[in-house]
Amino acid sequence: MAPKEYVYVVYEKTEEGEINLVEAYPTNDAAKTAASALDSGAEVHKLELKSEAPKAAKGKAKSAPAPKAKAGKKQKSPDVMDDQDNDVEDDANENDEPEAPEPKKAAPKKAKGAKSTRTEIPEGKPNVLQGLKLLFTGTMSMDRKTAEATAKTYGGEVIAKLEDTDYIILGTRPGDKKEKTINEHGLETITESEFFDILKNGVPKEKRDRMAAKGGAAEPAKKKQKK
Q1: Looking at the record's lineage, which domain of life comes first (predicted)?
Q2: I need a labelling partner for 150 at 20 to 30 A (CA). Which of 22, 67, 102, 182 fits?
Q3: Strand, helix or coil at 35?
Q4: pLDDT tens digits, the chain, 227 residues: what are they?
């Protein structure tokens, strides 16, 4: 057997009769010295130290208990956490899906019966402008090349000198210099709309007479009938 071991404890009594543990010492002398140093009466008690050999664990060792969750917070089971993680991933995948492109807006259709800003050139009589010297100036609904090509198609001659013209087809913003020349020489001008009327109906008789008097173009020569 192992030798017995003792410890010497100093107790102190209070006025109310309570006993307070002051200190424990390994030897009796040390305990008595400490007790004598106290002002009040103190006693030394000898206590035997009893040590027990650790008992061998029978069977399988118990696993350490799982740590308890802190108060106020419920610990979720792994299955629940996995389900929630999957939900979060699904939400993230849904948010990552590219947005469908917005449908392109169709160009507005023109209302039925709406007129274009570009005037349609009417179909004129053959050689209706034959013998006429024409000049186009200013801005019109038809571009300059189209206007000149139309005049040539119906027998007219397009020139560049204002003073030699039979008709000046005058559009908007013709230019100050040209307007001055037209006014100074009293040149005859017509609008684009009047030019179209000539294509459909021919040159007015009065205009043909004036041109004939000046030695200009007379009525278009009629084709000789074959005998």
Answers
A1: Eukaryota
A2: 182
A3: helix
A4: 677 788 788 777 777 777 777 777 788 787 788 777 776 667 878 877 776 655 554 544 455 555 554 544 444 444 544 555 555 455 545 555 556 566 565 555 554 544 445 678 999 999 999 999 999 999 999 999 999 999 999 999 999 999 999 999 999 999 899 999 999 999 999 999 999 999 999 999 998 888 888 775 545 544 444 44
φ, ψ at 84 (rounded to 5°): -70, -40
* Dist. CA 119–CA 141, nearest whole Å: 6
Helix (H), strand (E) at residue 151: helix 144-153
User: For residue 204, which amino acid is it?
Assistant: P
Asked whether the whole model's pTM tops 0.85, one would answer no
Nearest CA-CA partner of 136 in 189, 185, 87: 189
